[in-house]
Amino acid sequence: MENQIIIVRLATADDKHYAETITNEMEESAKARGTGIAKRSPLYIEKKMEEGKAIIAVTDQGTWVGFCYIEAWEHDKYVANSGLIVSPAFRKTGVATEIKHKVFNLSREKYPHAKIFGLTTGLAVMKINSDLGYEPVTYSELTNDEEFWKGCQSCVNYEILMSKGRKNCMCTAMLFDPAEAEAKIKAAEAAKALTQATPVKVAETVVTPEGELVTHRHREFKGNFKLFERWVRFKQFVLLKSSRKKDEGNGDKSDRKSLLSFFFFW
């Protein structure tokens, strides 16, 4: 790894020989985390490369480093940046952040009006997403495309997802809405134009009946990331505990009560 230059760029058909390495690492990484991602074949990854819908990172010596691709849903209304993976030897180098930034920009270029979303259990990815302008949302704000949700079937937590009526799970849903982003820019410009600053209330955070933490629009999410990180860990603990108590018949009530108690305590 030393003395190697990492290049993060658009993947092309010439990168097909990396496809099997990428899918193998995706599977191994999911096993190590104890979670799952939609399984993709090398042929599927090759197709994304051919379509110009993927970002790849390699060294100047040809070693594969990382990868991420784009999927569009509901006639291009929603776009997911999926399958982010980095080779173990190159983790904690900042390459994941660069890949995420480039695939985000690629998504904005190809689908300028689409809402960009992701589901993840990784706090590091959530932090990168927040820096890009994503905000936590309920699952109901994501695509309704059944093909997308079928991808969750390969995840070890699929039973939890279905037991919650597909409204909550171990993953946190995050969304970038271009219309909202534009509105925020205009609001910031208008505020800057004022001769005297006026305090503006940042929208509050609430817990939905499904136990999902949601911050309303026009909120300042980044500044509260530490609290959000604690909530994510607690949510995952509660959901796992609830799934183990499923046979007792009180899982849904107990986990909702725990989440509400945690939120109001903080």
TrEMBL record:
<dbReference type="InterPro" id="IPR000182">
    <property type="entry name" value="GNAT_dom"/>
</dbReference>
<dbReference type="GO" id="GO:0016747">
    <property type="term" value="F:acyltransferase activity, transferring groups other than amino-acyl groups"/>
</dbReference>
<feature type="domain" description="N-acetyltransferase">
    <location>
        <begin position="40"/>
        <end position="110"/>
    </location>
</feature>
<dbReference type="InterPro" id="IPR016181">
    <property type="entry name" value="Acyl_CoA_acyltransferase"/>
</dbReference>
<dbReference type="Pfam" id="PF00583">
    <property type="entry name" value="Acetyltransf_1"/>
</dbReference>
<protein>
    <recommendedName>
        <fullName>N-acetyltransferase domain-containing protein</fullName>
    </recommendedName>
</protein>
